[in-house]
């Protein structure tokens, strides 16, 4: 769910890759969902519908759920599950004080203008409504990003406009929330390293597109290979496991 005017490169939607590398909700979203605590009869907005799994989980608690996403492919995949998913840009939401809660998981680090997004979230909420989110925080995939940037710079390739994410510190994000008018209830940085069963090469193939966008195919493979060599020193263990150095921000706020 991105705005191409703000994003260096749009991340392509690959349902199989998403299921392997990005669909953490079935296994890792429990803490965020517990913070959300959806209630029977509530109306809840989900930013970033993914494949619809999160919407289904919340709806099973008795809430009426609407999911939005920029990518038509993601919305179509979610709609196949029978959920209410709509094509809408997070920067241009049109909802007006109609939701009891807004929830987002694994999305907001793609939003490079967080204040605009949060203003839309606040406008979508009823008075007293709550906002719960979990997304990449300061230090998230730091080793991976550094390895990719180093591989590019070694070949004299400019990295300007190639870094696609917003990984704020808790203090940074608290400031944005309070500037928009939220009352922060809790805000924490949570290290969450995750073993990657398909391996680091598959992860890079799925997520590194913004770093290697526009490069010739041979050079793209070379950049990924060089990043893998560097990462082998820190994220690859003696049992041939690759670990992604995830760090999340988990936040709960209200209006």
TrEMBL record:
InterPro entries: Methyltransf_11, SAM-dependent_MTases_sf
Residue intervals of the Methyltransferase type domain: 46-132
Gene3D superfamilies documented for this protein: Vaccinia Virus protein VP39
GO MF terms, alphabetically ordered: S-adenosylmethionine-dependent methyltransferase activity
GO BP, one annotated term: methylation
Keyword set, alphabetical order: Methyltransferase, Transferase
Name by which UniProt lists this protein: Methyltransferase domain-containing protein
Species of the source: Vreelandella salicampi
């Amino acid at each position: 769910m991105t705005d191409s005017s703000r994003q260096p490169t749009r991340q392509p939607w690959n349902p199989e890759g998403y299921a392997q590398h990005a669909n953490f909700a079935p296994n890792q979203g429990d803490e965020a969902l517990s913070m959300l605590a959806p209630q029977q009869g509530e109306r809840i907005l989900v930013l970033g519908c993914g494949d619809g799994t999160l919407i289904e989980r919340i709806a099973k608690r008795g809430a009426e759920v609407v999911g939005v996403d920029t990518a038509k492919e993601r919305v179509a995949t979610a709609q196949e599950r029978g959920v209410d998913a709509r094509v809408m840009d997070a920067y241009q939401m049109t909802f007006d004080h109609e939701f009891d809660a807004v929830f987002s998981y694994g999305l907001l680090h793609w939003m490079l203008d967080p204040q605009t997004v949060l203003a839309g979230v606040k406008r979508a909420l009823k008075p007293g409504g709550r906002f719960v989110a979990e997304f990449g925080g300061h230090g998230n995939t730091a080793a991976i990003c550094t390895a990719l940037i180093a591989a590019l710079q070694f070949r004299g390739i400019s990295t300007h406009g190639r870094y696609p994410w917003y990984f704020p510190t808790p203090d940074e994000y608290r400031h944005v929330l309070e500037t928009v008018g939220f009352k922060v209830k809790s805000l924490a940085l949570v290290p969450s390293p995750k073993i990657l069963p398909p391996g680091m090469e598959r992860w890079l193939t799925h997520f590194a597109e913004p770093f290697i966008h526009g490069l010739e195919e041979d050079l793209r493979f070379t950049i990924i290979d060089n990043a893998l060599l560097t990462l082998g020193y820190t994220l690859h263990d003696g049992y041939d496991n690759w670990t992604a150095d995830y760090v999340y921000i988990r936040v709960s706020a209200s209006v």
